[in-house]
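Lab channel / #folding
Pinned by the channel admin:
"Please post every new chain as: sequence first, then the C-alpha cells as a reply. Keep commentary short and put observations after the output so the thread stays searchable."

First post following the new format, from NK:
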Amino acid sequence: MKLSIENLALNRGERRVLQGVDAVLVPGKVTAILGAAGAGKVLLLRALAGRADADAGHVRLGGRLIGRLGRAERARAIVLVERDRRRLLGRGPADLAAALAARPGWLLAEDPLSALDPAAQLARIVQLRAAAAQGTGIVVTLADPVLAARVADAVLLLGGGGMIAFGAPGEALAHQPLRAAFGVEVMMIGDAQGRLLPVPIGCVPA
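Reply from TO:
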C-alpha cells in the first residue's frame, strides 16, 4: 500500500516546521527524507508513522487516514525505528535487524547510516535495498546527499520550511535543489554502479 502525503503541515509547539509537503511513497522502494539539521526530517518521519499530529493536510496508507488505523493494525503495517531509543537501549543494529526481519509493509528508520564507518554504511545500504527488493517500503532520514544518492530510489528534499524537491535522485539531488537545501555547491562523481554522487565542495557565496 502506498503512503500518501497530502499538503502536510507540521508544527513543533507553536512553531511551524513544515508546510505544503506533497508526495506519494511507493512500497518496494527506498525513499530518503533528506535535509539539513532542523529541516523537519524526523518530525515528518514520525508523522508518516502516525506518531506526530498534522497541523494541516493528511497522511494516508492505502487511501486510509493514518490516524484512523487501530494501534495493532498500524503496528503491523508500519515499524518506526528511532535513533534516540536505539542509543538509550544500546541496541542500534539489533533493533533495525529485528525490524527488517519482521518484514513489515513499511519500515521507517531515523538516520540508520549515522555513526557507522564506510564499510558498515555500505553493508547497511545493501541490507536496506534488499528489504525493499522483497517488497517492504523503506523510508530513511539522512543529512548527507552522497548517502542519499547511494541508497535511495526517491528523495524527498526538505529546506526552508517546506519541500524543495521530490523525485528520482538525479532530479532531487541536482545542483540547484542542494544549494537551496544545504547552501553548498556540489561536484557530481560517478560510482561503480553508474550513480551520480553529489559531493559537497564548498559553500554557496553569501
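NK: The two ends are 44 Å apart (CA to CA).
TO: also worth noting, The longest strand covers residues 15-25.
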